[in-house]
Amino acid sequence: LFILHHVLNFSWYRNLFRGHYSVSRILKTISALLLIPVMLALPVSGIMMSRHIFPGLGSSLSLVRIVHLFASYWGFVLMSLHIGLHWRMAVGMAGNLCGRKKMGSTAGEKEKKGMKRILALSMAMLAVLLFTGCAGGNDADSHMEGTQQMESSASETLGVDSDDTESAQNEPETDGADRAVLLYQGQASIRIVTAEGRVIYVDPYAGDDYELSADLILVTHPHYDHNMVDKVQNRNPGCEIITQDEAIQNGEHQIFDLGYVTVEAVEAGYNSLHDVSNCVGYILTFSDGKSVYVTGDTSTTEQMPLLAEKNIDYAFFCCDGIYNMGLEEAAECAELVGAKHNIPYHVTAKEGVVFDRELAEQFEAPDRLIVEAGEEIVIE
Q1: Which DSSP state fits 147?
Q2: How do residues 114-165 score in pLDDT, each as one tens digit?
């Protein structure tokens, strides 16, 4: 359609340096000239992000993602502006669609005007949709919405239900196990029951297994798909919530020794949608010395090469390739960190999809371990 539009309006290029430039013509010309590179950047960056035609881009995909998002947002704005500046032309075209034949009655003329108004209103609504980004079902807006609400809820700690029967039903089944058990719920949501029977939730959002009473809730950053702490209704007395606000104090990443687990906050972010000052990853070290690293939403961080010294047992790497690093960059990060088991998570940015096996299998890291949503593993 973009190419067809320019072919049909090729005379615009021929007349670009002819005639007088009024204020209206200047605005129309500027909006059109700005729209051309933006519309070209969208398919080019989209093809590059697919990694089929340009498989060797590697970490430079981060820049391509920024260009793609920038072009998407400004494309909506410029398209709505372009339609608005050519409004009379659009209404005239709507009139042509209604037909030029004579209608010999007042009723016929009213019908014609009504049709024109409906078509014009439809185009106006399209312009509004383009401006707001709703026309494309933009996932970035979905990714950001609800942040403020969840930030406030993350700082609250609810009391445990006083009903002894309900509390008993929410006790984790440890059956004498001396190792932690991890349940991956999809997206970035994880539940861990330690050897002591303590329950830890990380980035609550996906899944439905939140019935066990929590002792610790960890949040990597305030986006809603990492911060639905209200899903954890059952909480033991003294349940702690650690978010990025507690994890970063005066620019320093904190360490929390809770006895049954030591939680070390580490760097995360390093891309246009995730600021390193407002995002963290976590390394959890249990009482038996075993450790789990969750990156949170991030691209490659400056700290990752240093994490190899920690001999991490299990590492979860986000790799959606839209809001964060992609599969290739995540695999490179896995080599930097050098964990014994490297697990892809947050593998897709599709709304409502919390895991994609096909994408996870494209995570070509050493010592790869694929954990399906709803699957449990023993931390050993």
Answers
A1: H
A2: 666 676 666 566 656 655 544 444 444 444 444 444 444 444 443 434 344 3
**Residue 315 · residue 291 · CB < 8 Å:** no
Q: Which pair of tokens denotes residue 242?
A: 């650690």
Note the pLDDT tens digit of each residue in 179-207. 999 999 999 999 999 999 999 999 999 99
Q: CA angle, corner 341, sides to 337 and 346, nearest 5?
A: 80
Contact in structure between 320 and 61 (CB atoms under 8 Å): no
Report the first-to-last Cα separation within the chain, whole angstroms. 56
DSSP string for residues in 201-231: EES--SSS---SPEEEEE-SSSSGGG--GGG
pTM of the complete model beyond 0.70: no
The answer to whether 293 and 240 have CB atoms below 8 angstroms apart is: no
Give the count of beta carbons closer than 10 Å to the beta carbon of residue 246.
Answer: 17
> Taken in order 118, 121, 126, 129, is the CA torsion positive or negative?
negative
**Residue 150 has what pLDDT?**
41
Specify whether the backbone of 74 is left (phi greater than 0), alpha (psi in -120 to 50) or beta. Answer: alpha
Residues 6+ apart with CB under 8 A from 372: 184, 355, 357
